[in-house]
Design brief:
The protein folds into two domains: 152 residues, no CATH class; 90 residues, no CATH class. Helix content is 56%, strand content 6%. It has twelve helices and two strands; from the N terminus they run ααααββαααααααα. It has a two-stranded antiparallel sheet with strand order 1-2. Strand 1 and strand 2 form a beta hairpin. Helix 2 crosses helix 11 and helix 9 runs antiparallel to helix 11. The longest helix is centred in the first third of the chain and has 29 residues. The two termini are 34 Å apart.
């Protein structure tokens, strides 16, 4: 029970230490612009046609990223291992996200969509987990998930109410505390990720491999080859995604889409489809 509140407790505790115990150290605080008006329609009508066409091109790239991120997150949430009873609605979810973001764009609000890692983490927070031992390896499985919309509604209402905490006490939260929070979430999201598990196999004795289904069905050399190809693709994505050049970042969604033909057309040329199905979890 206490572990469910570890993150907010850590943020409160470290914010206290950063703002009061180490007050002599100049930390960058949480900042916001107080003079910004809400629900002001963006002056779209003042844009020339050239800007509209340019925005349409950039919007297409952004839509690719939304499509991938939304559907990947939904697929992970609706994975068979989560044992959800309510059916998936990928098309309706994407349609709803499009309608919401169209409204948000008119008022220059941030966009929303299902994203990693908090969408799968939300499912785990609602799940009853059970430890299972298989050939000396302990792993957790989902026993039951409380499928409810109340947690999402209440959490987003609380996010909206957080505006009442501006400028104080929100300004007491140092930026390094938030950076550490996001870093912790990113690191903890790695555990249970199949790619990360396969990377760890490079540093694990073969006799100590966990009894995963793909290890039983795929030769070791093919597993490592598949992992290396994924690492190379991740490296290319990081180059474009973290580039200081804005125009390179615009290509990032297109690179994400290119991963699909690479996976379905190029990868099967050197890894048999039956092994790819096992690595994909089928």
């Amino acid at each position: 029970m206490l572990a469910d509140y570890a993150l907010p407790v850590a943020v409160l505790a470290m914010s206290f230490f950063g703002s009061f115990v180490f007050k002599d150290i100049k930390l960058k605080p949480f900042t916001y612009r107080a003079n910004v008006e809400f629900f002001v329609v963006a002056p779209i009508h003042t844009l020339p046609w050239g800007a509209v066409l340019g925005a349409a091109g950039l919007g297409f790239c952004l839509s690719l990223l939304f499509f991938m991120d939304q559907n990947i997150s939904s697929a992970l949430v609706n994975a068979p291992a989560n044992k959800l009873k309510k059916g998936a609605a990928y098309h309706w979810d994407l349609f709803t996200v499009a309608i919401i973001n169209a409204f948000l764009s008119i008022f220059t609000f941030p966009w929303v969509h299902a994203a990693l890692p908090h969408s799968p983490l939300h499912v785990k927070a609602l799940a009853d987990m059970e430890d299972r031992v298989d050939q000396g390896h302990v792993h957790q499985i989902v026993v039951y998930v409380r499928e409810t919309r109340l947690t999402g509604i209440i959490s987003h209402i609380m996010i909206g109410l957080s505006l009442l905490l501006l400028p104080y006490p929100m300004s007491y939260i140092p930026r390094p505390v938030l950076d550490g929070l996001f870093l912790y979430i990113a690191i903890t999201a790695l555990f249970g990720n199949q790619m990360f598990d396969r990377i760890m196999l490079f540093f694990t004795e073969q006799a100590a491999y966990p009894p995963n289904h793909y290890i039983r069905r795929v030769p070791q050399r093919k597993i490592h080859l598949f992992t290396v190809t994924q690492i190379l693709q991740l490296f290319v994505l990081c180059i474009f995604g973290f580039s200081p050049i804005p125009y390179m970042k615009m290509v990032f969604p297109i690179l994400i889409m290119l991963l699909m033909p690479i996976r379905h057309k190029l990868t099967p040329k050197f890894i048999e489809p039956k092994y790819l199905k096992a690595l994909d979890g089928h």
